[in-house]
Design brief:
alpha+beta, 3-stranded mixed β-sheet, GMP Synthetase, Chain A, domain 3, about 20% strand, globular, single chain
Length: about 100
């Protein structure tokens, strides 16, 4: 099972209405699975600010957080997702060597 699949399986416990995990490692490192982007739409984010939402995701992933370099999070309630409809594009890596 790939790291991407493992992340998806863990995040599914947040009962998302929409879940997308993208492996963006090719934009940052050579041959390593190290950079991911997750778009999560869940009722569990209602009433939480972005920091609390991210903490909830980190807690859900637990020890897996130490197994990759970066995770870009885009967290929405279903109502917010209905308004925005898409997560912003990820920036191109600014360098920084062999993550």
């Amino acid at each position: 099972m790939s790291m991407q699949q493992r992340i998806e399986r863990q995040l599914a416990t947040l009962t998302p209405q929409h879940l997308q995990v993208l492996n963006e490692s090719h934009m940052h490192s050579r041959g390593q699975e190290s950079h991911y982007k997750a778009v999560i739409v869940s009722d569990q984010f209602a009433g939480l600010n972005s920091v609390k939402r991210h903490q909830k995701v980190y807690a859900t992933l637990g020890e897996m957080m130490g197994q990759f370099h970066a995770l870009a999070l885009h967290t929405y309630t279903p109502e917010e997702w209905a308004q925005v409809g898409a997560a912003p594009a990820s920036p191109v890596c600014a360098g920084g060597g062999g993550h």
